[in-house]
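Sequence, please.
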C-alpha cells in the first residue's frame, strides 16, 4: 500500500529515505542536487556511464550513507517530452509507476519528489500533481487479500510531493483529490478482483450499502420480488439460473433539483458462465470480472459524494450471476422488459444487454436523467477490435462523445469511438419478438450491434455506451494498472461528472 502526501518543506529538508528524480533524455543536472552531488560529484557522467540517459524506460538507483542513514536516489526517465501532451502525460504516469514499484521493491518507507516541469503537459501544475497521485496510488494496489505471506502485505510506503512557495495550497488540494479518486479506482478493482464465491450479488450490494452509509448517499436495494413487481423480465431471466438472488442497486448523490441529472449504469454479472449457452472452459476463466461496470459506477460514487460536483448523479447496478441450471433462462425464450418491449433470447451468453435493458428503462422511468452513461464488459468482439488500451465509446451524440474523449485524454482512461450508425438497426431484428439479443452474423460488428440492443431502452436521455470488455482487466505493459482489474472508466466518469456534465441537458 502506498499513501501520497504533500510536504511544504524543501526536498532536501524532507528527511526521507528515498529521493525520486524524473529526468528527460536531455537532462542537465545543473540544479540543486544537494546530497547526491556531495556523494557523487560527477553525477551526470556517472548516470550516462551506467546507461541512464533519461529514456522513457530508463531507471537507475544510487545509494549513499548520509549522517549515518542510508538514502537512495532513484532516477526515472520520462523520454524526449516532445510528443502530444496527453501521450507525454501517460509516459509520466508510467514513470511514476516505475518509481513506486522501485521503492516497494527496495522496501523504502518514505520517498519524496518535486513536480517535473509542467510545460510539455499543457496542464496546470495542480492537475499534474493530481494525475501523478492517481498513478502512484494505482500502482500501490495489489489484490493480496488471500495471500498468507505477510511480508509483502505489510509494506506501507509514503510518497511526498515537495512543494513550497506559491501555489502549494492548490497543489495540496489536488493531491488530496487524486488520492480520493484513487480510492474509488482501487475500490472498483478490489470488488472486480474478488472471485464469485465471495463477491455474490448480495455481497456487492452490501458493499454499495456501506459506501452509501459512509458518504451520506441514498441507497435503494431490492431483489426478485420488487423486480417482478416492476416487470423487470430481463434482469430476472438472467438471474434465474443461480441460487444467489439477483440484486438491483441504486445510489443517489443529490446536488440540486435544478441541476442536470447523470445516470451511471453498470453491468454487474458477478460470474458469467454463459448460462445454458455455456462458455468453453478457457473463455470462462476471468468471468469474475464481468461485474466491472457495476463496480465502477458504485465505487465512483464515493469520490463523487466527497467532491460534490454541480450535477445530480445516480448509479444503477443490476447484479446477477449467469448460471446454467434447471431454472435458468434458455435459448428461444421471449422476455418482456419493464418498458414493455420484448426480446428473443438467441444466446444466453449475451446476458449483459438483457440486464442492462431493464436498468436503462428503470433509470429513464424513475429519474428522467439528462445523460446516461452505461459501462459494461459487454462483448468479446470489443477486445478483438480495440485490444486492451482503449474502451469503446458508442453514441450518436457528438458533443457528449467529444467531452468524454477529452476526459479520457486527460485522465489516461482512453476511449475510441465506434460508429453507431442506424444501418445496424436491422441486425437485431427478430421474427418472434421486438428484438433479438444477438446480432445477425451478416452484420458482424458485435460491439456495435450490442449497443443497438441497448438503444431500445433509452427514451429521452442523451446516452453513451462504454464497452470495457478489453480494458477492465489484464491490460499488458501498463505498470500502474498491475495485474487483474484496472478500474477502467472510473477516472473518466469522475472527470466527466466533475468538469463537463453540468452543460449537458436533454432536449425538452
Ligand atoms: N461477458 C461477456 C463479454 C466478454 C468476453 C467480456 C470476454 C470480457 C472478455 C459477454 O457476456 C458475452 O459473453 N458476450 C458474447 C456475446 C455473443 C454471445 C453475442 C461474446 O462476446 O461472445
Ligand atoms: Zn456472456
Ligand atoms: Zn457477460
Amino acid at each position: 500500500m502506498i499513501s501520497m502526501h504533500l510536504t511544504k518543506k524543501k526536498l532536501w529538508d524532507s528527511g526521507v529515505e528515498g529521493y525520486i528524480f524524473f529526468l528527460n533524455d536531455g537532462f542537465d543536472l545543473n540544479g540543486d542536487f544537494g546530497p547526491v552531488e556531495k556523494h557523487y560529484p560527477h553525477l551526470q557522467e556517472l548516470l550516462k556511464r551506467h546507461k541512464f540517459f533519461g529514456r522513457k524506460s530508463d531507471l537507475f538507483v544510487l545509494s549513499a550513507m548520509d549522517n549515518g542513514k542510508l538514502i537512495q536516489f532513484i532516477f526515472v526517465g520520462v523520454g524526449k517530452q516532445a510528443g502530444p501532451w496527453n501521450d507525454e502525460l501517460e509516459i509520466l504516469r508510467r514513470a511514476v509507476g516505475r518509481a513506486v514499484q522501485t521503492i516497494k521493491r527496495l522496501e523504502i518507507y518514505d520517498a519524496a519528489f518535486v513536480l517535473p516541469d509542467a510545460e510539455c503537459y499543457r496542464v496546470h501544475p495542480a492537475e499534474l500533481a493530481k494525475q501523478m497521485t492517481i498513478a502512484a496510488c494505482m500502482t500501490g494496489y495489489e489484490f493480496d487479500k488471500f495471500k498468507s505471506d505477510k511480508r509483502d502485505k505489510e509494506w506501507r510506503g509514503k510518497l511526498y510531493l515537495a512543494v513550497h512557495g506559491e501555489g502549494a495550497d492548490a497543489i495540496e488540494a489536488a493531491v488530496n483529490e487524486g488520492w480520493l479518486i484513487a480510492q474509488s479506482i482501487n475500490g472498483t478493482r478490489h470488488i472486480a478482483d474478488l472471485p464469485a464465491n465471495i463477491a455474490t450479488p448480495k455481497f456487492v450490494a452490501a458493499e454499495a450499502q456501506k459506501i452509501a452509509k459512509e458518504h451520506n448517499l441514498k441507497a435503494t436495494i431490492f431483489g426478485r420480488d420488487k423486480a417482478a413487481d416492476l416487470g423487470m423480465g430481463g434482469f430476472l431471466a438472467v438471474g434465474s439460473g443461480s441460487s444467489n438472488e439477483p440484486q438491483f442497486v441504486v445510489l443517489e448523490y443529490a446536488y440540486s433539483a435544478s441541476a442536470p441529472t447523470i445516470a451511471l449504469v453498470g453491468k454487474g454479472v458477478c460470474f458469467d458462465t454463459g448460462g445454458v449457452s455455456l462458455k468453453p472452459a478457457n473463455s470462462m476463466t476471468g468471468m469474475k470480472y464481468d461485474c466491472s461496470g457495476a463496480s465502477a459506477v458504485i465505487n465512483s460514487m464515493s469520490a463523487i459524494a466527497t467532491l460534490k460536483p454541480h450535477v445530480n448523479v445516480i448509479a444503477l447496478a443490476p447484479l446477477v450471476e449467469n448460471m446454467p441450471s434447471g431454472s435458468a433462462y434458455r435459448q428461444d425464450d421471449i422476455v418482456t422488459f419493464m418498458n414493455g418491449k420484448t426480446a428473443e433470447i438467441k444466446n444466453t451468453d449475451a446476458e449483459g444487454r438483457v440486464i442492462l435493458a431493464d436498468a436503462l428503462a428503470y433509470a429513464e422511468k424513475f429519474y428522467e436523467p439528462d445523460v446516461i452513461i452505461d459501462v459494461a464488459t459487454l462483448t468479446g468482439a470489443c477486445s478483438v477490435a480495440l485490444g486492451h488500451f482503449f474502451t469503446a465509446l458508442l453514441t450518436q451524440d457528438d458533443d457528449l462523445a467529444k467531452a468524454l474523449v477529452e476526459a479520457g485524454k486527460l485522465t489516461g482512461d482512453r476511449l475510441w469511438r465506434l460508429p453507431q450508425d442506424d444501418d445496424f438497426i436491422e441486425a437485431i431484428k427478430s421474427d418472434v419478438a421486438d428484438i433479438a439479443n444477438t446480432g445477425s452474423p451478416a452484420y458482424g460488428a458485435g460491439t456495435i450491434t450490442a449497443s443497438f440492443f441497448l438503444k431500445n431502452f433509452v427514451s429521452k436521455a442523451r446516452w453513451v455506451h462504454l464497452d470495457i470488455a478489453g480494458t477492465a482487466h489484464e491490460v499488458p505493459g501498463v505498470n500502474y494498472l498491475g495485474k487483474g482489474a484496472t478500474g477502467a472508466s472510473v477516472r473518466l466518469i469522475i472527470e466527466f461528472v466533475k468538469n463537463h456534465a453540468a452543460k449537458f441537458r436533454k432536449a425538452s
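The chain has a mean pLDDT of 96.
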